Fold:
Amino acid sequence: MPIVELEDGRIAAMWDLAQLKSLYRSLLTGLRAEPGGDLDESDCLMELQVFLQREAKDEGVDVTHHAVWEAWLGNRDPVPCQQRYAAYARKKFDP
Structure:
């Protein structure tokens, strides 16, 4: 997995699909461990999720079916949505 700095200062990582799935699972695990964090709203995680969902759809996976999506990602014991989000702190927004 080569990581290089581009001329414009951005960083590029050449990862295969299995590595991206592992990264996504790891990011979500970190998010679950720190309820109330803002990682779930980051552009990085959203772009990664959109990319992976596109790949999954191309392979015929119904990404709207949570268990199927989780299985495609390689999660052997998916956490149900209700349980996963139950621990998240509700965010408060100033008017």
